[in-house]
Amino acid sequence: MASLGRPLRFTRRMRCYIFGFCINVFLVCNILVHQTWTKWNSALVEKPDSWSRTAGKGSAQKTQGDNEYRVLVSRFRKLMENAVESSNFSSSENDESLELISNAQNGTLRFKNRSSEQLFNCQDIENITDKHYIGSGWTKAVYSGIISSKKVAMKTVDIGGQDVTNCVKWGQTLAECYYRAAQKIVKEIVLLQELEHRNLVKVLGYCIPEEQYNGDDVTLVSLITELGDTIDLIKLLPMSWEERLRISYDLTSLIHFFAHSPHGPVVMNDFRHQQFVLVNGMLKLTDVDDTGIGDPHCSTQADCNLHFSPSEFHAKIPCQNGHCVGLNEKKNIFNAGRHFIIFRLPYGAPPSLHPILYDVVSGFTNLTMSADRLLEQMQKAVHLYKTGHYLNRTQPVKTGHCLESNSESCG
Q1: Shared domain check, 203 and 175
Q2: Residue 107 CB-density burial (10 A; 0-12 exposed, 13-18 middle, 19+ buried)
Q3: Does 313 lie in the same domain as 352?
Q4: Is the CB of residue 239 less than 8 Å from the CB of residue 357?
Q5: Residues 166 and 264 occupy one common structural domain
Q6: Residue ranges of the Protein kinase domain (predicted)?
Q7: Coil/strand/helix, residue 60
Q8: Measured distance CA(305)–CA(300) in Å, rounded
Q9: Which of 270, 287, 295, 303 is catalytic?
Q10: Is residue 270 flagged as an active site residue?
Q11: pLDDT, tens digit, 9 for 90 and up, residues 299-340
Q12: 382 and 251 belong to one structural domain
């Protein structure tokens, strides 16, 4: 028996050694990956250095780029002239920027500042202080700062971003790449002015310099807006139900406005938490360069079939007079439901409000309500909660459903 015990103990010991070795290898690999990620992420965050490197590459093309940039920016600056109402806004979800930028280049797309406040100009923006990097995407970088004692957000072209660097790698001049990226900021300047709403960030100023970008702040195409707090899941989770109700109402109000925009139905093609900020507790959309205006064109009914992945949800939108009527509205409603409403609105709600809130959630997730009806129901829920009338109900009104399966109100 003793002779059999020794091999058994040896086998167990070897297994422990092998297991320990594997654990150590796993930990070492994780440390190496973490260090690599940290270095890579730091390189992305250090935006001024990346600007300088990219600007250095572009300096070799300066002679050719100067003339190109002056021609292109002269078209941009026509946007800054105060003129009559803008001309036609029209777009589909696939080419929403084409007509907008075309009109900008031709000088036919203009707008006026509808606010009584004076907008910050290039000189004001040049004197921005306390500038701090907030974040960036593929095309733009966002900073916080102070102008005339006012805290603001400044959005600029990210010269070190993927759009510009990839464009330069593909053989385009820095002027061409910068102009292409700046189109998105100009589009946001125009849209945020034209689509004025309480749940869209307010434009406080902008600058479209005459000089080609050379690494100096004074040559940045920039947009100045209200400064808000970024939104992510970590910030949303600990919010009180009242705060989540306010956010849900703000989002519903914005979707209703987009459905009835004076320029046509607006669609948010890139619907994410990162596109929104909270300004004094109010939800506001801050990124509108990926929006489209006008329902898409169609020739057959099949052109208007909506498919949402990965939920595998399908919806048939009518093709009428060559347009998918209501597609933009339905797309906004469904995306708002799965990104905000379904996970924020129901849980922790007063039991007496469950029936009306269930109808709202169902309207978002199953597209059973229009934007008009959703706003009407949300206004009703807010009124009942704000006035305290929901406390007068000892039992909720039965609708055959309940919001939470473990709620005592589910009968």
Answers
A1: yes
A2: middle
A3: yes
A4: no
A5: no
A6: 128-411
A7: coil
A8: 10
A9: 270
A10: yes
A11: 999 999 888 876 678 888 999 999 999 999 999 999 999 988
A12: yes
